[in-house]
Amino acid sequence: MEKDLYGVCPFVTAQKILTGKWTLLIMHHLNLKTMRFSELQRALPHLTQSTLTKQLRMMEGNGLVIRTVYSQIPPKVEYSLSDLGYEFKPVLSTLETWGNKYLDFLKKN
């Protein structure tokens, strides 16, 4: 049933696009600035190189991330949010606010 709703239901579609344990954190970091692969690795030290590669490819395929390759030696590759990815900024901000409230809830309980 979920496959039938992809591209039809906004919630199923968004859930499918944002799949992946690291997608939101990668979007958070790229929302702050354009980054090279190694910068993303340093920002997310618990993420393996292969998982980061897989996540970035998936996000690029979904139109959230732009991969820019510069013709130089040594090769330089940068990742940034696409226009569609930047439109997610208010959602990231709202998630941060809600996450902080939930952290307060956890501290009290």
UniProtKB/TrEMBL annotation:
Domain HTH hxlR-type, residue spans: 9-107
GO molecular function, one term: DNA binding
InterPro entries: ArsR-like_HTH, HTH_HxlR, WH-like_DNA-bd_sf, WH_DNA-bd_sf
Domain of life where this protein originates: Bacteria
This protein's UniProt keywords: DNA-binding, Transcription, Transcription regulation
PANTHER family: TRANSCRIPTIONAL REGULATOR, TRANSCRIPTIONAL REGULATOR, MARR FAMILY
Name of this chain's protein: DNA-binding transcriptional regulator, HxlR family
Species: [Clostridium] fimetarium
